[in-house]
Amino acid sequence: MDPFGGSGVTAIEAFLENRTGIQNDINPLANFIARGIVNLTEGSISDYCRSLTEIGDSCEKKIKRIDSLSDEDIRRVIRSVNLPPNTRLPGNSDVQYYHDLFTWKQLASLAILKEAIDRLRDAPSRNAMLLAWSATLTKLNRTFLSARGRAPSRGGSSIFSIYRYKVAKMPIELPCWDTFYERASNVIDAKAEMDKLIELKRQTVGWSGRFEEYSLDIEELSDRFIGSVDYVFTDPPYGGNISYLDLSTLWNVWLDSCPSEEIRKKELIVGGELKIKEEDYIQRLYDSIRACLRMLKINRWCSVVFQHWNIDYFKAILSAGEAEGGELKAAVSQVGDPIWSMHKKKNRERVLSGEMILTFLKSEKKPVPRRRGSFDLEGTIKRLLDTHRESNIYGEYLFNRVIIEAWENSSIENINISKHDFIDILNNMGWRYDSRRHYWIKNQSEERMLFDL
Ligand SMILES: C[S@@+](CC[C@H](N)C(=O)[O-])C[C@H]1O[C@@H](n2cnc3c(N)ncnc32)[C@H](O)[C@@H]1O
């Protein structure tokens, strides 16, 4: 089960491993994607290909012609198609209304394409093509930015890089039909891969994979699944940076699946359009992790993926696990990913990248109340660095080790460290940040530096 399932990786992988994968997310877009992928196991590849041809026959030429139309003609096309409502966007967007996220050509082409897909009679193919259309929408809007010197299609939306609707000064207009065709081909390839996997299972151990989908707030979900889940693997929102619901407006509006105000209030987040306070987030994070543990059977496991500079967030997760009988059995840092985000590249040592996976085993033992211990922050960092066998270390790994040591010594209450303190301590101990490889290195000796010169 993944109660914060997002696009569904956990539940889909469980499903493909012959288990019952349970996907939950309050964001309708998340479930649209997860369900859309699982449903690719329905229908046949030949039906999907036939449907793609049918869509092409009905609108490829029309869409390609849009490029050469005058503004007035495009406006006429726009008046003849079904457009999504022109909803107001979140306050931090560059434009106020939904339609302003598109050029007229994009709006007209996407609408024509969607109408052709909606007319398909074969439900599994319609689902697959709608998935491809939603991936086309990701690329055909004015938030799509491309770096100078790169192929335009290699760009990405500002939604994924700076987490808001920033519109490009010079929008890139990718060809709608070709973009959709490529996405649809990818979807068909994904279906072929899933069909093959399932067939292999059928011929060997038998196929029993199941997928369940819920769109409940985590508290409500836990009431339904109390004491009945074998494994929870989850990646809750990390506080302030990303408002998943606001950022999904681009898709939810056109898919007619905008969440209600009541659901929006439940989003685990700091800030967002509803300006949720940090102390509320911490309390809700605590409650959510308790809810995860509550859903587990005894002697089963829960893994929580997390990363943040704010130690109070970790404190909430660790103490919630403990309060529900979860014993921390592993804390593994996922560091060294060679693909760095733009945030990491720009802000380097000030940004944590790569998560820590905290794994709890649920037992019936009652938690023993913790005594508050003291914590020597600099001494701990020094010891960890002195005993580190290599000459480089990822800051994320070191930071995570400090948190776990403090937790194990019952002294997490006593650490109060900001990213600046952490960076200063490392600098003062003679370590330097390598901005290309994004790890810290022990200062080279003076002779070595002279030799290098
Ligand atoms: C970090 S994302 C999960 C990403 C996911 N692991 C993936 O690979 O796509 C966190 C998710 O939690 C969802 N969420 C936020 N508050 C929630 C709540 N109260 N109940 C359930 N889901 C919530 C968000 O919509 C978002 O999709």
Keywords, separated by commas or semicolons:
single chain; 453 residues; alpha+beta; Rossmann fold; 2 domains; 4-stranded mixed beta sheet; 3-stranded antiparallel beta sheet; 11 strands; 12% strand; globular; disordered C terminus; binds S-adenosylmethionine
Architecture overview:
The chain folds into two domains: 27-190, no CATH class; 215-236 and 277-452, Rossmann fold (3-Layer(aba) Sandwich). Helix content is 48%, strand content 12%. It is built from 19 helices and eleven strands. The chain has helices at 9-16, 28-38, 45-66, 71-80, 104-118, 123-139, 158-161, 176-203, 218-224, 244-247, 249-254, 261-266, 278-295, 311-323, 342-347, 377-386, 395-408, 419-428, 446-452, and strands at 20-24, 144-145, 156-157, 210-214, 229-234, 296-306, 326-333, 356-362, 392-393, 431-434, 439-442. A four-stranded mixed beta sheet has the order 5-6-8-7. Strand 10 and strand 11 form a beta hairpin. Mean pLDDT is 91; it is low at 446-453. S-adenosylmethionine is lined by residues 3-4, 6-7, 9, 24-27, 30, 217-218, 235-237, 244, 266-268.
Strand order of the largest sheet: 5-6-8-7
> Shape, please?
globular
Largest sheet: 4 strands, mixed
The CATH architecture designation of the largest domain is 3-Layer(aba) Sandwich
Q: Would you list the SSEs in sequence order as H and E?
A: HEHHHHHEEHHEHEHHHHEHEHEHEHHEEH
Please report the first level of CATH classification, the CATH class of the largest domain: Alpha Beta
Q: How large a portion of the residues is in β-strands, by DSSP E? A: 5-15%
Bound molecules: S-adenosylmethionine
CATH topology of the largest domain: Rossmann fold
What's the helical proportion of residues?
40-55%
* Uncertain spans: 446-453
Tell me which oligomeric state these chains represent: single chain
The N- to C-terminal Cα distance equals 56 Å
